Amino acid sequence: MSRTLGALPDHTHEEMLGILARADAARLKAFAEPLIAALGDIEVRENRTGLVMLPMRDTAQGTHFHLGEVLVSEARIAAGGVEGYGMRRGRDLEAAMAMALVDLCVARGLHLRACAAFVTDEAVTQAEEDRETLRRVEATRVEMETF
How many Å apart are CA 76 and CA 50, to the nearest integer? Predict the structure, then answer.
């Protein structure tokens, strides 16, 4: 993986945001709160809820369509000429702000080891949860023969 501004050693920026978007809200908020002191003056540019379209693909016909809307919370903050961003499913504006704080710290190169450890721990937890979900789905699978 290439290391770029706004990325951690083991995760690209896109991977980090994906992991933070699914991170446990309570753990994310608890981790992000102490980061505020290192950032100095923070400008809140956006802190809102909204709807985004949920795109899907019909695998039989290969066409794309919108399944519906998803309620999201979004936060965009800035400090030191750098922006942090967070978007999470649901109405939890504090969790979106916590995500933006972590993103801003990484973008500014602050608390990188702690942020990397948090993101890696969450990625491991999410992978385990995904495996368990797939196990439950696999248990309901039915083999059928075609005549």
Answer: 14
**What is the number of helices (H) and of strands (E) in the chain?**
5, 3
- C-beta separation of 110 from 35 below 8 A: yes
Name the burial class of residue 29, with classes exposed (0-12), middle (13-18) and buried (19+) by CB atoms within 10 angstroms of its CB: middle
The residue type found at 46 is E
Q: CA nearest 17: which of 80, 74, 87, 79?
A: 87
Phi and psi at residue 87, to the nearest 5°: -140, 125
C-alpha closest to that of 95 among 36, 48, 26: 26
Q: Give 141's contacts (C-beta < 8 A, 6+ positions apart).
A: none
What confidence tens digit (pLDDT) does each residue in 81-109 have? 999 999 999 999 999 999 999 999 999 99
Token pair for 127: 């992978």
- Which residues, 6+ apart, have CB-to-CB distance to 123 below 8 Å? 11, 15, 19
Q: Beta strands 63-79 and 43-58: pairing type?
A: antiparallel
pTM (whole model) above 0.70: yes
